[in-house]
């Protein structure tokens, strides 16, 4: 099935703001944060208040940065989500980074790009210090 959008809707998607991108983000990318949670964090940031909400995992999620084209959300003590909207010619590209931390200063970052309708433009790319640590352990002499 081919989707036909009015010209005005296509223009709006080309000028996608970071606020619109967060609102339109599929719940599957942040399953324990509702769309209302995301909108509440934006409202709090606009009001210069602490932008923290209770998430579905009974923890606290806090937006720590918001600008016209990017944001950062501390999803939990061990997870950070950053997002940027990049304008490219007549379209917008969303760059999403999800970083997961361990107690030992190890981390793993998953980066993926999406179009303005949240359709993937790339496969997730994983950068990890965890793999390096595994290699170090494998190379230790065993007694």
Low-confidence stretches: 1-12
Order of helices and strands: HHHEEEEEEEH
C-alpha Rg (nearest Å): 18 Å
Strand order of the largest sheet: 1-2-3-4-5-6-7
Largest sheet data: 7 strands, antiparallel
Shape: globular
Strand content: 35-45%
The termini sit apart by 62 Å
* Average pLDDT, all residues: 86
SS summary, helix count? 4
Number of strands: 7
Share of helix among residues? 25-40%
Class derived from helix and strand content: alpha+beta
Question: What order do the helices and strands come in, and which of them pair?
Answer:
Elements: H1 7-14, H2 18-24, H3 35-46, E1 51-54, E2 60-66, E3 70-76, E4 79-88, E5 91-101, E6 107-115, E7 125-128, H4 130-138
Helix pairs in contact: 2-3
Describe this structure in words.
The chain is α+β, with helices and mostly antiparallel strands and 143 residues long. 25% of the residues lie in helices and 36% in strands. The protein contains four helices and seven strands. The chain has a seven-stranded antiparallel sheet with strand order 1-2-3-4-5-6-7. A hairpin with a 3-residue loop joins strand 2 and strand 3. Helix 2 runs antiparallel to helix 3. The radius of gyration is 18 Å and the shape is globular. It starts with 6 loop residues before the first helix and ends in a 5-residue tail after the last helix. The N terminus is likely disordered.
